Structure formats: C-alpha cells, structure tokens
Amino acid sequence: MQLLKIIHEIRQDHPTMGVRDIFYKIRPETMGRDLFERFCKEYKLMSLVPKSFRRTTDSTGVIRFDNLIKSKTLTHIDQVWQSDITYYELNGRFYYITFIIDGFSRRIVGHHTSDRMHTEQTTLPALNKALSTRKHNIPHGLIFHSDGGGQYYDKNFLALTEKNQIRNSMCEFAWENGKAERINGVIKNNYLRHKSIKSFSELIKSVDQSVQLYNSEKPHIKLKRMSPISFEQKILYSNNLTTTISN
Prior knowledge:
This protein is of the alpha/beta class. It contains eight helices and seven strands; from the N terminus they run αααββββαβαβαααβ. The chain has helices at residues 2-13, 19-26, 33-42, 123-133, 155-163, 178-190, 200-217, 228-237; strands at residues 73-74, 80-90, 93-102, 108-114, 143-146, 167-170, 245-246. A five-stranded mixed beta sheet has the order 4-3-2-5-6, with helices on both faces. Strand 3 (93-102) and strand 4 form a beta hairpin. The protein is globular, with a radius of gyration of 18 Å.
C-alpha cells in the first residue's frame, strides 16, 4: 500500500513518466519489473493519476486500523501524531523521507531519510526519533495516525507502539491525513528544492536542517503566527493562550 501511495505521488509530479522508468527509480525490493508493471496496470497507473484515489487495503495480510481522529478536536500536544512517507528525486533515483508531526502544534517530532522503503529505514527510526524528542514522556493513549502503508502495521512497528501504549489509527483517503500530507510539500518545495543537494549524505543533512528551520522559525496562521516550537513553549509555560484545532 505504501508503494501504491508513492507511485500516485510520483504520477502527480511526473504524469507522463513510463512505469518502467518509475520502476528503475523506485527500485522496489518486493517485486521485479514485470510484476511491478502488472501492479501499475491493475491500479490504472499506466498514465495520469485518477482524480480520486481510494486505497484498497482489505487484501490478504493487510491490517486496517479504525480512523480515530475523524472529526476530533485537538486541545493539547501529544494527543495525535500524524505520519507520512514521501519521496525525493536525486541523481536519477528516489529516496524516502518519513515525517511524524504533532497534530496540535504542527511540530515535526520525528523524521528519517532513507534509500529504502523498509520499515527499518522509515517508520521505525522516525518513531524512535519522535519518542526521543518527547524524551519518552508521552501520555498513554496517544493516537498515531497514518495511511495504510505496510510500514505502519509491520510487526516491529506495532511492537513499538504497543510498548509505549500508543493507539494506531489509519485513514482511508489521503485527505484524512492532510496535515502529514502537507508537511511533505512544505519541506520539499519550500526548503529542499532551494538547496544544491548532490548526494544522499547531503540530502540527509539538508532534511535535518530543513526540519530544524521549519520547527523553530516558520510561523503558522493556526498557531497565532508562531513557529511550532515557540507555540509549544507558549502553551507549556503560559495560561494565557487557549487554542483548539480540528482535524
């Protein structure tokens, strides 16, 4: 399912790119070229992406969690974390960036840049980073919301969420994870594409720098023109700010 999502994202940026070219850029380890092309044909991805993308996640072996944040009003940090995986094209191939944001403060609490889509290179290190950011001091019942990608129901990932008493939640449509989807574009278009990145190691450093700039300096209308970190500091140390945020 995460591969399907990445292909749809690529199709938006490269509407006429052949599926064979996409295969050699993604280099999926889970399937060969011929199976990849049949996969794209099955999901009607041989040409332009359909306007409405409904994820079919009821196939054998796929776990689906209920959407726990639908119509939910957020009132504090560490109530909902939202996550997504996006791609970044560099030197003729794709790399992958996983983001986890706090749904209330919009702060990127965890992220990771990788050259593979496996759980061990995407969601696991990003979640460990988020836990470290919060110093493992998160309330029981925190909701972790994502799309239906396999990296979010991998047994090792679920073991980590269970260990920290985190409740898993999934969307059916992309717009039900809008905050995480939007952060992809913000970091890629507002930061990374303005840098001269020539290697994978430089990409890792650039993503780290971009996340730091976004968290500490980018003002948000929804956050009373404060950056995510400033907003969190304000609500932690002041009783004068009351804010509610709806999903």
